[in-house]
Amino acid sequence: MMNQSDWLARSRAAVWHPCTQMKLHETGELPLIPIARGAGAWLYDFEDRRYLDAISSWWVNLFGHAHPRINAAIKDQLDRLEHVILAGFTHAPVVELSERLSALTGLGHCFYASDGSSAVEIALKMSFHYWRNHGRPGKSRFLCLKGSYHGETLGTLGVGDVALYKEAYGPLMREAMTVPSPDARLAEPGETAEDVAERAARGLEAMLAEHHASVAALIVEPLVQGAGGMVMYDPEYLRLACALCDRYNIHLIADEIMVGFGRTGTLFAHEQAGIRPDFLCLSKGLTGGYLPLSVVLTTNTIYTAFYDDAITRGFLHSHSYTGNPLACRAALATLDLFAEEQVLERNQQFAERFTGLLAPLANHPQARHFRQRGMIWAVDIATRDPDFRLRFYREALQREILLRPLGTTIYFMPPYVVNDQDAALLAEQAVAALDAALA
Ligand SMILES: *Cc1c(COP(=O)(O)O)cnc(C)c1O
């Protein structure tokens, strides 16, 4: 059997790891950890050292690793049909999944892809194409929030505002127009998060008043802007933005790729504002974190604009693995778990306990803006150390914890199966890792 260090060397030589300066793996500054297996909230390496997966393996995992129910669904599907072209053909898992997602969201049509970025691309293309089919091809621009993140492809970087990821590719991009973020941290003394939301909405209104004729859609990450630093904001912003989109005749695209499936406390984040977006993008937790699958849900109004005798008025977009049956079965098993177990209620009770356990971190002398929504916690660390992120990451790993700060923001996004004992360990070791990283 291959041992731990063999896998390390072979991976460094053959695998170009994502979002990584590979040189850091050579110098040992950034450990590369071969994982042999996962069980529940824990990952195990080849020497049986364990790591608590406190970021749900990049925000995808909901019910832990190797969940018996999801495993069984995929195994059952594997012996029936692993994949079939979805143009001209259909299959039971994709039909059932579409019906159930529609029933949950009130959005009647599901278009599938394989990852989050592709879902965002689809929503952008569909929005533009809708206006084109309505004789308004001039509506070709997009609005996004300051600090927003919607993926890594050229189209999605264009509606993103995280400099680290997009700077190098500026010349390749078609930039969206940026409107103020309702980031609750921007509250002036005496202001509430709702006041900040209203202020940001006034910024949006000013932009729309001037540019609405050339704008197709506003894209938002409802309630929590993830990659931009776990920025949290008041649902009032979504209510106001949705009303403004209606008034100025532009689409609202809700990118719930990260916040969907219970992360913010409700099944979908936009529910907390009582709004219905024109497009809803889902991925990540959709399959419980098992397999790549994404979907764009949209309204009858939008669907109908493409329904025509002319082929070119249709949406001629596809991906090879669109609607993959194995991924759809994983998604159906995930929805079963939500339907049969009191997931959101249990999470709410857990969240109260975990917020209590994080008090020492929230009250740490270097901690700023501790915040929580649903099953997401974040805190900014006041440090000028450019290596803080790496230092903290290493210190946490040494304490059996997988936490991966965004810049100087430490956040927690554990799978929903994390138990109280693990949570206590997580809270305690996070503070220990912070002290060590700052020392
Ligand atoms: C992760 C993410 C994406 C991109 O999804 P990928 O599957 O990584 O392409 C888009 N939007 C948001 C809000 C995300 O968090």
> Order of strands in the sheet with the most strands?
4-12-11-10-7-5-6
As a whole number of angstroms, the C-alpha radius of gyration is 22 Å
What characteristic shape results from the CA principal axes?
A: globular
Approximate helicity band: 40-55%
Could you describe the 3D structure shown?
The protein has 439 residues and is an alpha/beta fold. It contains 16 helices and 16 strands. A seven-stranded mixed beta sheet has the order 4-12-11-10-7-5-6, sandwiched between helices. β1 (35-39) and β2 form a beta hairpin. The radius of gyration is 22 Å and the shape is globular.
Concise account of the structure shown:
The chain has 439 residues and is an alpha/beta fold.
Which terms would index this structure?
single chain, 439 residues, alpha/beta, 2 domains, 16 strands, 40% helix, binds pyridoxal-5'-phosphate
Layout of helices and strands, plus pairs?
Blueprint (H helix, E strand, L loop, with lengths): L3 H11 L8 H5 L7 E5 L2 E4 L4 E4 L2 H4 L8 H11 L13 H14 L3 E5 L2 H18 L7 E5 L8 H5 L4 H4 L10 E3 L13 H19 L3 E6 L3 E2 L5 E2 L3 H13 L2 E5 L23 E4 L11 E5 L1 H7 L18 H16 L2 H15 L1 H4 L4 E7 L2 E6 L6 H11 L2 E2 L6 E4 L7 H19 L1
Helix pairs in contact: 4-12, 5-12, 9-10, 13-16, 15-16
Bound molecules: pyridoxal-5'-phosphate.
The site of pyridoxal-5'-phosphate has 14 residues, from helix 6.
